[in-house]
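W.,

You were right to be curious about this one. When I first looked at the sequence I had no strong expectations either way, so I just let the prediction run and decided to look at it fresh. Below is the sequence, 426 residues in total, followed by the output.
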Amino acid sequence: MSLKTKKKTVADNGDTGEDSVLATMVSNGEDLGPMVRFAFETGRPESLLHQLKGLVKKKEVEIEELCKLHYEEFIIAVDELRGVLVDAEELKSELSSDNFRLQQVGTSLLSKLEELLESYSIKNNITEAIKMSKNCIQILDLCVKCNGHVSEGRFYPALKAVDLIEKNYLQNNIPVRALKILIEKQIPALKSHIKKKVCSEVNEWLVHIRSDAKDIGQTAIGYASAARQREEDMLARQRKAEEQSCLGLEDLSYTLDVEEIDESSVLKFDLTPLYRAYHIHDCLGIPDEFRDYYYNNRFLQLKSDLQISSAQPFLESHQTFLAHIAGYFIVEDRVLRTAGGLLSPTELETMWETAVAKVTAVLEEQFSNMDSASHLLLVKDYVASICEKFKDSADGIFGSLSNRASKQSARKKSLDMLKKRLRDFN
C-alpha cells in the first residue's frame, strides 16, 4: 500500500469516528450548543445537519404513530377545548353583565356614602359650633354678671368674675378670636375703672373724715374728761370712807364703780370705704400702691390741719384746733388696729412726731404773744389735760395711742417734752 493510500484510509477512519460521536450526542439528546461547537471544530457541520435531519424524520414518524394511536382521544380533547371556549365566552358575558349591574349599584352606594360622610362632617361641625357657642355663652354670662356687679358698686364679686374668666377661659377656652381680643382689651379697662371708683370713694371718705375729726376729738376729750372726773370723785369718796373708818364708823362701806368706756360705742365713724378700697387693691395685686396713696394723702391732711388760721384768735380756736388733731390720731389709731396692715406703726409714729413738733412750735409762738396770764393758763390746762390723757389712759379712748409701746416710747417722750415746754411758761 502506498503512502497516499494510507493517509486517505486514516482520514476516512477519523471522519467515521467524528460522525459516530455526533450521532451519539444527537441520539442522547444532548444540548445543541456543544454539538454545534464540536461540529465546527472538527469541520463536520454537514454531518451534524445530516444527523439532525435524520432525528427530525425519526421524531415525525414517532409523532405520526402517536397521533394514530390517540387520534380519537385527541379529537375528543379538541371538542372539549372548544366547549370550554364557549363556556368561557358565556362566563365572560355574565361577568361583564354582573360588573355593569355592580357598577350601577356601587355608583348609587358611593353617592350615598359621600352624602353620609358629608352629613357626618356637618354633624361634627354643628357639635363643635354648639360647644363653642356654650363656651361663648358662659363667658358672656360672666361678663354680664361682672358688668352688673360694677354698675351696682359690688366690685369684689366683679373682680372674682374677672379672675374666673382669666383663669378658666382666657388661656385656651375662648374659641372666637374676636371675642377673645375684646375681652383681653376690656379686662384692663374694667380693672382701671374699679380702681378709679374705689379711689373716688376713698377721696370722698378722706374729705368726710377730715370734717368729722373735730367732732371725734371733742367727743373723745369729753368722755375722757368725764372719766377723769369720775375717777377723782371715786378717790374722794374713798378718802372720805377711810376717814370715817378711822373715826370708828366700821359699819360704813364703800364701793368703787368703774364704768368702762367702749371706744367703738363712743366714737362712731365708718371705715368701710377704706377697708373696701384696700381689699380691692389687694385683689388687684397692688396693695402697696394704695398704702402709699393713703399715707401720703393723710399726711398732707395732717400738715394742712396743723396750720393755724389768722382769721380767728388762738384763744377762741385752740380747743377746735387741738380737738381736730386728737380726732385725726384717733382715726389713724383705729386704722392701724383694724385695717390689716394699711398703716404701719412706723408711719403713725412719724405722723405723731410731726404733729407734736408742730403743736409745740405753735404753742410757743402763741404763748409768747399772750399778755393775760388767765388766757395762758386756760390754753395750758387744756393742752396739759390732753397730754395726760394721751399718755396715761391705758384702757380708755386714748389708750391704744399712748400705751402701744413701753413707758419710754418716743410718743411719751414727745408728750413729756411738750409738758415741759408748758411748764416753762409758768
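Here's what jumped out at me. The first helix runs from residue 3 to 27. And, maybe more interesting for your project: The chain has 14 helices and no strands.

Coffee later to discuss?

I.
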